[in-house]
Amino acid sequence: MIVSAKGRYALRVMIALAKHEKDEPVPLKELALREEIPYKFLEAIMCELVKAGLVESVRGKNGGYRLSAPKETCTAADILRITETSFTAAACAGGSADCPRAEMCPTLPMWRALDDAVEELLKKYTLADFI
Predict the structure, then answer these.
(1) What is the CA radius of gyration of the chain?
(2) Is the pLDDT score of 100 beyond 90?
(3) The pTM is what?
(4) 57 - beta bridge partners?
(5) 3 state SS of 96
(6) H-helix or E-strand spanning residue 79
(7) Which of 20, 33, 68, 76 has its CA at a distance of 20 to 30 angstroms from the CA of residue 93?
(8) Greatest CA span in the chain, whole angstroms?
(9) Which domains are present in the chain?
(10) Model confidence over 13-54: pLDDT tens digits?
């Protein structure tokens, strides 16, 4: 699994929001500047995070974004699941590709074990752990 820039940026911005101690929303422009993420790209990422229910959008003069998911329970897996197509190391292991050799493949159990290990590792880290 290679985490895309979108996934890395989503994780960074969620950590930034978790560090923000006040319940006030953080303007998108401020997040983009602070985290050095292109504004338009961050805008698209935030839409996905809002849609997933991890972030809340507040409109108005003092609007912006704030966490809606508790930082103690929101995991790296929760965030990356939104931005990444899969956590699989090999296409055949995820079940998305019909592999004609799956029944006799000696390496398939290893790929599946690797995928499970990555998933479990990502589930162990919460936003609270990062701050």
Answers:
(1) 17
(2) no
(3) 0.86
(4) 65
(5) coil
(6) helix 76-83
(7) 76
(8) 61
(9) 5-130 (1.10.10.10)
(10) 999 999 987 778 999 999 999 999 999 999 999 999 999 999
